[in-house]
Amino acid sequence: MTSSPVPPESHADLLTRPLFAHLATVRPDGAPQSNVMWFAWDGERIRMTHTKTRQKFQNLRHEPRVSLSIADPDDPYRFLEVRGVVEKIEDDDEQASFYRSLQERYGRVYDITDAPVRVVVTIRPESFWAVAGGQPARRH
User: How does pLDDT run along the chain (140 residues), one tens digit per residue?
Assistant: First the structure.
């Protein structure tokens, strides 16, 4: 695995808190698509879950470059943009354990009816852009 840049300390909490990330991908026709997603940060990689039956999955397979925006709900003028690349897409296990871990992280546990088509998407950050007070981004 290639090492990733380190997120700015001033915004690292946005990666560790159970916040929503707006994941932007590119559709096969070149149009952008953005969706709100749950995520987990392990200190180097961002992991998300999705299903093989949706357009977002097709987008990720077609074009692995992505961008995520994570806003601070306590200060909407503070956010972090993560630009990266999908490093791998793997099937979740039979119980969709990764998806279950995200449900627990976000406090919304319910039956998983689509476990057979669940995947884990691993994103390797290539850069971080930190914004505070609405001021222009600083690249890290």
Answer: 456 799 999 999 999 999 999 999 999 999 999 999 999 999 999 999 999 999 999 999 999 999 999 999 999 899 999 999 999 999 999 999 999 999 999 999 999 999 999 999 999 999 999 999 988 777 77
pTM of the shown model? 0.93
DSSP helix/strand/coil, 63:
coil
- Any residues with CB less than 8 A from the CB of 51 and at least 6 apart, and which? 57, 114, 117, 118, 119
86 with 46: CB under 8 angstroms? no
Domain map (residue ranges) of the chain: 9-135
Query: What's the Cα-to-Cα distance from 138 to each of 22, 24, 84, rounded to whole Å?
Result: 19, 20, 16
Fold classified for 9-135: Pnp Oxidase; Chain A (2.30.110)
Maximum Cα–Cα distance across the chain: 45
